[in-house]
Amino acid sequence: MSTKKVRFAVVGTGWFAQEAILPAFPNAENAKLAAIVSGDPVKQKEVGEQYDVPAYGYEQYGDLLESGTIDAVYIALPNSMHKEYTVRAAKEHIHVLCEKPMAATAAECRAMIDACNDTGVKLMIAYRLHFESANLIAIEHIKSGKIGEPRVFNSVFTQQVQEGNTRLEADLAGHPLMDIGIYCINAARYLFQDDPIEVAAFSASNRETRFREVPELVTAVMRFPKERLATFTCGFGEANVSEYRVVGTTGNLGMELAYTFRGDITMRLTDKEGKTKEARFPERDQVGAEIAYFSDCILNNREPEPNGLEGLIDLTIIEAIEKSCATGRAVRLNPAPSKPRPSLKQEYKLPKLEAPELVNAASPGG
């Protein structure tokens, strides 16, 4: 690479890309925003001008990949498009940072991994909480035995999603499991430091037309080795809740606004004597942390921790949960391949971002 900065194109200019990804590049000193890709001509013009970078349409994606002006792409497209745009980038020897969920299916995840391995490019999945202080410290507290042996994980992650949002469209692989349930699944895995071996789940929907293609909410139970249980509920028709609790044999750890990228996160740790200590973690730029970490992996030829295998494991679990919802039966999972877990070595403390003015975009709740 000719420079000390990795040149990125952000592919997709929806709400999250505009709200969190595009403004994050100044916080990543080893990265540079070099281009955007959008299917909306208004966004191409106005967002391109906002960040002073060239804008490409989807039909020009191949030209961008071949232009020699970028080293990596950050894919922030609807879930159903992740595989195509990853494989095309890999074939042109362009590194890929891809939003979660990694793809629409586990089979697509495997194809993405193979494509990147074939050309030797880096593939990272954008698990921003793998770089966030509160969640990384929670991992250390549990590993060090501060709540005894962890036995129970319970989480609720719900929000309102408006009619017409892509998260409600099945053909774009929208689904509460894919959009927010994946955070609960991933948190249970990094807090238990293991992967589930069996799942059982139910889905439910009210009669609103917005839930004609995807369920309103899903509740799942995941059985982990050592007879530990993790339960979570995710939903698109409820008030905003983002929390988890891990209960051990001698104490418990709770997190409020556990999965947020806006606002402070609060941790409450209760020890074996029943004493509770509260810690507040100020809002940080979690996306800038991802970009900086991935750029470091590219510049120093290191394998990212939340790599394609991390994304594949979560999609495998999601598919098992969907199967359980459809059949009413528990579903066994094959043992997942071992891989590194997130640790405090990956902690970043970057300044929080100011919310930019959005162009033809709105949050899921409007």
**Which band does the percent of strand residues land in?**
15-25%
Order of helices and strands: EHEHEHEHEHEHEHEEEEEEEHHE
Strand order of the largest sheet: 14-13-12-11-7-10-9-8-15
Assign an overall shape. Answer: globular
- Classify the helix fraction into a percent range: 25-40%
How many β-strands, per DSSP? 15
Task: Explain the overall architecture.
GO terms for molecular function: nucleotide binding. InterPro entries: Gfo/Idh/MocA-like_OxRdtase_N, Gfo/Idh/MocA_Oxidoreductases, GFO_IDH_MocA-like_dom, Glc-Fru_OxRdtase_bac, NAD(P)-bd_dom_sf. This is Gfo/Idh/MocA-like oxidoreductase N-terminal domain-containing protein. The chain is α/β, with parallel strands linked by helices and 366 residues long. The chain folds into 2 domains: 144 residues, NAD(P)-binding Rossmann-like Domain (Rossmann fold), CATH 3.40.50; 168 residues, Dihydrodipicolinate Reductase, domain 2, CATH 3.30.360. 30% of the residues lie in helices and 25% in strands. The strands form 2 sheets. It has a 9-stranded mixed β-sheet. The protein has a 6-stranded parallel β-sheet with strand order 3-2-1-4-5-6. Helix 4 packs parallel to helix 5, helix 5 packs antiparallel against helix 9 and helix 7 packs across helix 9. The N and C termini lie far apart (41 Å). The relative contact order is 0.18. The mean pLDDT is 97.
